[in-house]
Amino acid sequence: MKRPLRTGMALAAVLAAGGAGYWAGHRGLEVPGLSTWFGVGGFHVAVDQPGTTGTAIYYRDPDGKPAYSAEPRQTTDGRPFTAVPAGEDINFDEKQPVESQTAPADKRRVLYYRNPMGLPDTSPVPKKDSMGMDYLAVYDGEESEDGVIKLSPGRIQRSGVRSEPVRRQTLAQTIRVPGVVQLDERQISVVTIRADAFVQEVAPITTGDRVAKGTRLARIYSPEISTAGAQFITELNAATRGVAEGGARQRLENLGVPPEIITEIGRNRKVPSTINWPAPRDGIVMERNVSDGMKMVAGDSLFRLADISTIWVLADVPERELSDVRIGALATVRLRGRPDTAFEGRVNLIYPQIADATRTARIRIELANRDGMLLPGMYADVEIRSQDAKPVLVVPNSAVIDSGTRRTVILDRGEGRFEPREVKLGRRGDDAVEITEGVSEDDRVVVAANFLIDAESNLKAALSGFATSVVKP
């Protein structure tokens, strides 16, 4: 076998083993009559110029798969491998168009060369950095758009850059504040007597018990009420003889005697020695202030009752968020002891004062107390949903770069061009923020990887300062 053929077969064997690039590049393979180079794995192997002919030096898969053989062979479906003669060009890389291989040199004027790692370092002449990387040329015209950053499609994809249009919509915001459960003040009753009395007997009712309207709370004796009752009977008897009634009935009413007791006296024509004092409403006994045998002075409280079928939640809203709370706003209340249970209600009052110590305003939410789970004094977490009726220009929260003194968004100009734009912010929502100045409804803003583009913008601004000095002779 001739030497070129033996060398070609050895080359094919190396190619089949997957080490052609490394072996040829590092062993300095030289095959007589070979003058063209092709790349495999980043190294080069020499083969003959196209157009020459010769004996087959190896065989390759007819479908272009990376399978090679030094002898004729067939595929698994019986098709023969393609013979590769010594004069055929071999290239495992995608062939470049002829015009790209012979493209003329770029005739644009080089302004300067910038650091390949993005460092603020430029040079008026070509050079390498400390790692041996070539500085990148910056041509005349590349920076004609002030403030605009240009990124290649590959870099945009690798960086994960995403943009969304500026929208006009209502801005929803959830305000989260602590709250406490309180009794509805309108559902509280104090049981009292308007005359001096003695407590004959107290019903077996204690604090915390539920009572219904009309339930007997205590049995009392009052000389003043008995006297008024006797006078009432006298007037009723006189009325049967045609004598006009006096004011005995009104006096009983003024003493707070329940209407049913007055009706009973008028029907029986008899004043009871003691009177059963009833509960004026359904509710829970919050206080019991009487015991058997006690003397009650006019105005003393016997019991304090509260209806807890409806209840209040009082929440403290910070002063800076008070403008976002509206009467009628939907509110969700969750108890600290029952975080999985939510109660829905609405804000029905904003108290007209600010607490000096906490700089908060108190709001009131009225709730239906299902199953009596809401008890006075419980702590709660309150979420107030606020939404403006007027649509405004908004962008996602992630689109805003806030340095503390400056707020910026990155506008997507298309074709890989991005422009930083300073904006003024309005109200913030749950996932968006209002823009009052700086963008329009036709703009698109970057919502992901915008910090990378902002860093590139700052770098460009720094490099532009160097450019004016390095291009001058």
TrEMBL record:
> Which ranges carry the CzcB-like C-terminal circularly permuted SH3-like domain?
394-453
Occurrences of domain CusB-like beta-barrel (ranges): 310-387
State the Pfam families in the record. Beta-barrel_RND_2, BSH_CusB, CzcB_C
Give the Gene3D superfamilies listed for this entry: 2.40.30.170, 2.40.420.20
Q: Where is the CusB-like barrel-sandwich hybrid domain?
A: 189-306
Q: Does the keyword S-adenosyl-L-methionine apply?
A: no
- Regions crossing the membrane: none
Q: Which family does it belong to?
A: Belongs to the membrane fusion protein (MFP) (TC 8.A.1) family.
> What protein is this chain from?
Efflux RND transporter periplasmic adaptor subunit
The species this protein was found in? Camelimonas fluminis
